[in-house]
Structure formats: structure tokens, C-alpha cells
Design goal:
The protein is an alpha/beta fold. The chain contains 14 helices and twelve strands. The strands form two sheets. It has a six-stranded mixed beta sheet with strand order 3-4-5-2-1-6. It has a six-stranded mixed beta sheet with strand order 8-9-7-10-11-12. Helix 12 runs antiparallel to helix 13. The radius of gyration is 29 Å and the shape is flat. Bound molecules: guanosine-5'-triphosphate and magnesium ion.
């Protein structure tokens, strides 16, 4: 339990109609008592209107709302001050509170206290962080599911089953000491397999989780004048890049983010690839090739009505690419490969299919689970992978008829990793890093 009282502005800095300052800790009420001339009858979840006074000066007219421990966000006594949204006023109220014993909160410290006081689990805290930063509807839904504890519950179910399996196993091992041959039946193996497949399902959501949090990078490349910038503008629904009939229009990399079927997609438009003696164009084409290896998806644009020729530049290995044949309004050449996505920026045709193909290319690893709401993040993925490996070794040992001691060790390892994902045995560093990512006042 912490015994100091922390304070921070919980709304964005700057001028606004209102600002909310939050205090949490045992002295929350006392600090405000010291700033008000008129006595306050503190009642949980009730708001009172008061004038704050500091060093004989009127600070502001505010509304104070009180939450009593443990029924607050942090689990501690908490007071929220709603004041006028003037940065100088906020500064004065903060300073006056610090003079009366409050301490400035670190980023995420309110949420960290909530975690330490068992008000929310580690995966819920991670969901909350994702919720604050979610860039699309789909990211919001996934963050909300995690914040509501759905992932935590799925992990708890897996853990309970593992504990149960382990206790069965230990019981058999105890019998062994009494001279009875220890054995586990096919039912036991079946249960381990089922736990492993549940873990597999969660692990498959990791690529989507990453895309929802960080966005996926798609780079648009092709020869000059094929309509790369036109494609960028259409996907963005915005006139972002210059479009012109002269080849060699785009020189710099142009980056923008769009929302494609709920997936945050970072798009980069590039200079056309061709032999040139213009140093600016050469540099533009070089930058385009240099950014390619960072892409999660390459959008290779050609012209639909012209004879198809493979790209003269190298695609980075291992990055999926889509062939997009633009200007279909001018015709379709017979030489176009069958997998080309035929579109026309001018007529708007083919965009439905293009979006579907981009979506499935990005979610390929999830095979048919693109509607998944529950996703795991990078930290959970790393630890859950380890747990899955332990389970694989458990199954191997069971199938090979290795000793049950080995099975028990592997199951224990899996349990240990699972406890870490859930947040029961997570080390300080990971916790510190997580909470630092929150904004101040959260
Ligand atoms: N007919 C037709 N013209 C198009 C279509 N899409 C783009 N264009 C035209 O093609 C020309 C080149 O378009 P851009 O989008 O500037 O092509 P780009 O690939 O970015 O060209 P660079 O930046 O020079 O490499 C412009 O005149 C566009 O209006 C299309 O679907 N149909
Ligand atoms: Mg261009």
C-alpha cells in the first residue's frame, strides 16, 4: 500500500471549457479541506461546489467529487477537481495542492495503483492503454474486450485446466511411490491437446493485435504515371499527393494513415521506378526501394490496358505483395496475370475487391479469423509462445512414453509462463515499462 497522495491533470493541457485534476491517496480530502474556507461534508460519490483559496488568493470555483477507498478507480480515497480549463489556473491549483503535501503523479501512476490494489488485472491495464490510443473502431473493440477482462478470463480458464492436469499427474506420481505404476490415459493427453489448441487460437491473433495497435505499413510502388498517387488519394479519401499526367511527378516519400475496414493502415506513396538522368528522380526512386523492406505489404501498381511486364526492381523477400492493375477504364490487356486486382481510380471500380485483398493479405496468418475481437499484444505473445512450447514438449513426452516427472516439469513451466502473462509473477521492469506508456493523469 502506498501512503502518499498523488495529483495530476487528467485532461489535456491547454485552454478548454473544463479541466479535471485528480488526487488519489489518504490525504486527498485533507488537502482540499486546506484549500477551502467553507467546511466540506465529504460524501462518497457526491459532488460539491466550492471556491478554492490558496495563500489568501481566490484560485477558482470548482466542483469536487469524492470517491471513498476502496470504491474508486485506484482503490484509494480519490477527489476529482473540475475547474475552468485555463492552464494558469490549473497550474495554481496544482501548486497549492503540492504545498499541502500532494506529490506530482508519474505517468500511469493512478492505473498502477489500481493494479496494485487489485482493481484491475495486468491484461485489463494493457487493454485500457490500448483503448486510449485505439485508432479505429476495430482497435477499440479489441481494446474494450481486453479491458473488460475477456482475455484475462480466457487465460484464467487455460490456467485452471493446467493446474487441474498437474494435480492429476502429481497424484499418479504419489501412487508410484506406493509401488503402483504411474500412468495417464488418453483422456489426459486429450485435455493437454485441447489446452494447446486454445493457446494456439490466442497466439494466432497476435499479428492482428500488432496491426491494431501500431498500424500496418503498405508501400505503393511501380513505374511512373501508373496512378500510384491517385491510388493513395483514393484510399485516403483525401487529395493528399499531387497527381499529374507527367511521369515523374512524385519525388519524396508521402506517408499518410487511413482506416481500411477498421485496420489502421499506414500508406507510403513513392516516386516511379525508371531509368533517369535527373538526380532528384534517381534519389526519389532510391528512397522508394529503401523503404520497401520495412513494409508489411507491397502494393505494386501497373496499368491494366498496357502489356504486362514484371517489375524491373527487386521486391524484398518474405513480404507479401499485391499486383494492382489500374486504369481499367482504358481497357484490360490479355497479358495481365490472373491474380492482378483490376481497378480504376477514375471509375472507382475494383476498390471493394482491393480492400478485401489488402485485408486478407495482412491477416493471412490468422486464416479465416479476421472477425476476432480478442487479440493479444507483443508482450503476451512472447510469453504465451513459451508456454505453448512447454506444452508441445509435454505432449511429446506423453507420446514418447517419457517419464511422468518430465511431463510434470514441462507442465509447471507452462503454468509459470501463464502466470506471467496474467500478471501474477510479472517482473518490475515489465510493469514499469507498461505504466510509463500511459499519459500523466491516467
Ligand atoms: N484513365 C485513367 N487515368 C488515371 C487513372 N488513375 C490515374 N490516372 C491518371 O494518370 C496520371 C498519373 O497519375 P498519378 O497518380 O500522378 O501517377 P503516379 O504513378 O503517382 O505517377 P508518378 O508520381 O509520376 O510516378 C494522371 O493524369 C491521372 O489522372 C485511372 O484509373 N484511369
Ligand atoms: Mg505520384
Amino acid at each position: 500500500m502506498t501512503n502518499d497522495t498523488i495529483i495530476a491533470l487528467s485532461t489535456p493541457p491547454g485552454v478548454a471549457a473544463l479541466a479535471v485534476i485528480r488526487l488519489s491517496g489518504p490525504e486527498s480530502r485533507a488537502i482540499l479541506d486546506a484549500l477551502t474556507a467553507e467546511k466540506i461534508e465529504w460524501r462518497a460519490r457526491h459532488a460539491v461546489y466550492r471556491t478554492l483559496v490558496g495563500q489568501g488568493q481566490i484560485l477558482d470555483d470548482v466542483v469536487l467529487t469524492f470517491w471513498q477507498a476502496p470504491h474508486s478507480y485506484t482503490g484509494e480515497d480519490t477527489v476529482e477537481i473540475s475547474c475552468h480549463g485555463n492552464p494558469h489556473l490549473v497550474e495554481k491549483i496544482l501548486r497549492a495542492s503540492l504545498e499541502h503535501g500532494a506529490r506530482t503523479a508519474r505517468p500511469g501512476e493512478f492505473t498502477q495503483r489500481a493494479f496494485l490494489n487489485d482493481k484491475l488485472s495486468l491484461t485489463q491495464a494493457e487493454g485500457l492503454l490500448d483503448l486510449l490510443y485505439a485508432p479505429t473502431e476495430r482497435a477499440l473493440a479489441s481494446a474494450r474486450a481486453m479491458k473488460e477482462g475477456k482475455l484475462g478470463h480466457a487465460l484464467e480458464d487455460i490456467r485452471r485446466e493446467l493446474i487441474d492436469l498437474l494435480s492429476h499427474l502429481e497424484a499418479s506420481l504419489d501412487f508410484a511411490e506406493e509401488g503402483i505404476e504411474p500412468r495417464v490415459g488418453p483422456e489426459f493427453i486429450g485435455r493437454v491437446e485441447s489446452v494447446r489448441s486454445q493457446m494456439g487460437q490466442l497466439l494466432r491473433t497476435a499479428p492482428l493485435g500488432r496491426i491494431l495497435q501500431e498500424g500496418a505499413l503498405a508501400v505503393i510502388v511501380g513505374e511512373p504515371n501508373v496512378g500510384k498517387s491517385s491510388l493513395l488519394n483514393t484510399l485516403l479519401h483525401e487529395d493528399r499527393a499531387i497527381v499529374a499526367p507527367t511521369p515523374g511527378t512524385t519525388r519524396d516519400l508521402i506517408e499518410a494513415t487511413c482506416n481500411l475496414r477498421g485496420l489502421p493502415l499506414r500508406l507510403i506513396d513513392t516516386a516511379g521506378q525508371r531509368e533517369s538522368s535527373d538526380p532528384v528522380e534517381i534519389e526519389g526512386a532510391r528512397r522508394a526501394r529503401a523503404v520497401l523492406p520495412q513494409a508489411q505489404l507491397v502494393l505494386h501498381v501497373v496499368e491494366a490496358h498496357l502489356p504486362y511486364a514484371p517489375a524491373k526492381f527487386d521486391f524484398p523477400e518474405g513480404i507479401p505483395s499485391l499486383l494492382i492493375a489500374n486504369k481499367a477504364d482504358l481497357g484490360r490487356h490479355a497479358s495481365l496475370p490472373a491474380d492482378a486486382i483490376v481497378i480504376s481510380v477514375r471509375s472507382g471500380e475494383g476498390f471493394e475487391q482491393l480492400e478485401a485483398r489488402i485485408e486478407s493479405a495482412l491477416l493471412a496468418e490468422m486464416a479465416g479469423e479476421s472477425d476476432t475481437v480478442l487479440t493479444i499484444n507483443a508482450r503476451q505473445n512472447a510469453t504465451l509462445q513459451r508456454a505453448a512450447q512447454s506444452l508441445d514438449r509435454t505432449l511429446e513426452a506423453l507420446h514418447n512414453g517419457s517419464g511422468l516427472e518430465i511431463v510434470s516439469i514441462e507442465l509447471r513451466d507452462a503454468l509459470h509462463d501463464l502466470a506471467e502473462v496474467i500478471g501474477e509473477t510479472t517482473n518490475e521492469d515489465i510493469l514499469t515499462r507498461l505504466f510509463q506508456n500511459f499519459c500523466i493523469g491516467k
